[in-house]
Each structure stands twice: as structure tokens, then as C-alpha cells.
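Protein in question kept underneath.
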Amino acid sequence: MAGAGSAIRAAGAKRGTAREEAFADLVRRWQPIPRAAGTPVPSGPALLRYLRYSEPYDDGDVHREGAVVLVAAVPGTDPTAPWRLASEELPHPATFRFTTAAFDRVQDVRREAGTLTMNEALVVQETR
């Protein structure tokens, strides 16, 4: 986080799209959980490790869309190998519901028509 103050001031000094892009770049650089592009959480067994919900909101003249970010441990093709992490961002959630039981044990991930569920412990339905 070295130089965070000057980086925020520099981003805030920009206007319009350049300002939005500068702040988005800061968010990407300081993201606590790296996003693994191209490794979505597959259907099947998964152990939820991280979950984040961002509500849509307006920040002055800039609109921010809502999203759900998931990180889960999932098995590979070799049943004796350690599980790997898979992550994805589900944009524009129309429905988001979870219980802490989603983190308790291995859950069964199902995907149907824009909806991701983990048993009854997690439901994310995307707006299309």
C-alpha cells in the first residue's frame, strides 16, 4: 500500500472516464483476493472460501454495477490431487441469498439458466 495517498490523489485529480479508469485500476491492484480469470467455479462439489457482494450504487456521476465474487476450492480430474481454487465474478445479481452454512462443508454447485446455487446455502441469480 506504499504510495496509496498519492495514488488516490492522482486518480481523484482526473476527470470523467480517465478518473473512473484510474480508480478501477487502483481497486484491481489492491484487491485482497486475486481473480483467476477463466477459472469459474464448476458444477459439482466445492468448498466456499471467500464471498463478496457489492451492491449497485451511484458515486457522484459514476454508476457502479453490483456483483458477487466467489472463490471456492474444487477437485481436479485426479481424485488424489489437492483441490485447486476457482473464482469468478457474477455481474448484475438480481437475487443474492446465502447462509453461513455455505462455508461449513463441501456443497454441491449447480448452474441452471443464469442461476448458481450451492445446495440451499447460496443462491445467485443473474439479471439478463
User: Anything to note?
Assistant: The first strand starts at residue 44 and ends at 54.
